[in-house]
Specification:
The strands form four sheets. A five-stranded parallel β-sheet has the order 2-1-3-6-7, with helices on both faces. A four-stranded antiparallel β-sheet has the order 8-9-10-11, with helices on one face. Strands 12-14-13 form a three-stranded antiparallel β-sheet. The longest helix is centred in the middle third of the chain and has 18 residues. By secondary structure, the chain is of the alpha/beta class. The chain contains eight helices and 14 strands.
Length: about 220
């Protein structure tokens, strides 16, 4: 599970990093609103731990921005604000949970596990998008009931698109999804090649659209 920590206080961020890393989570830190925004444009995470007060902006405003862009990543707001109005505002803005400073690492880990369990229970083995059908258990994708013969990378990319319809996915996100060591892929057009091959296999069903200068998105014809 990949977790992004958005926290401008170095001590707090380092403490969270060490705690989560010791429990085998894949963790990255953003120390400002701007840095978090940039990281989220190029990477996908399972959970975001978002501090309310950032040095260059508000975590609350960042949360609203992410939800307005239809980013469904689970968010746990972390704040020193302990009044009910702040909690209601965070939840209404799209936060999945809320934890108040000071908190114990035991409590935070429990909340992360609870969100993880909830996500797993909400997932279905079959996801439909128009005439595409994705089976996440058998790792098969069907077009009008016919099995598509995909390579692993092609399957991984098309699965990501089907799970995130109408969301613009950048080339960085797509590259990171099929090859974790993105640094070794700098400048590579591997994603574009895979997309070209997927489009050939989809034939006249032209649902993967290019967003020039950014990446690709899955939209109905």
């Amino acid at each position: 599970m990949r977790i992004l920590i958005v926290e401008d206080d170095k001590n707090s961020a380092d403490f969270l990093y060490k705690t989560l890393h010791s429990h085998a989570y894949d963790v990255q830190i953003a120390r400002s609103y701007k840095e978090a925004d940039e990281i989220l444009q190029e990477n996908l995470f399972s959970i975001i731990l978002l501090d309310w007060n950032l040095g260059d902006g508000s975590g609350y405003d960042l949360l609203k921005e992410l939800r307005s862009l239809d980013l469904q990543t689970s968010v746990i707001m972390i704040t020193s604000e302990d009044d009910i109005e702040a909690k209601v505002a965070a939840l209404d803005a799209g936060s999945d949970d809320y934890i108040t400073k000071p908190y114990s690492s035991v409590e935070l880990l429990a909340r992360i596990r609870a969100i993880s369990r909830r996500e797993m229970s909400n997932k279905t083995s079959v996801i439909n998008f128009d005439i595409l059908e994705l089976n996440t258990i058998t790792h098969e994708i069907f077009l009008k009931g016919e099995l598509l013969k995909l390579t692993k990378a092609e399957y991984d990319l098309l699965e990501l698109f089907i799970q995130n319809p109408n969301v613009v996915l950048t080339r960085y996100q797509l590259s990171d999804h099929i090859m974790k060591d993105f640094a070794s892929m700098s400048g590579s057009n591997l994603v574009d090649v895979h997309i070209k091959n997927i489009r050939k296999k989809l034939g006249d069903y032209n649902v993967i659209q290019t967003v020039r200068g950014v990446g690709y998105t899955l939209k109905e014809q």
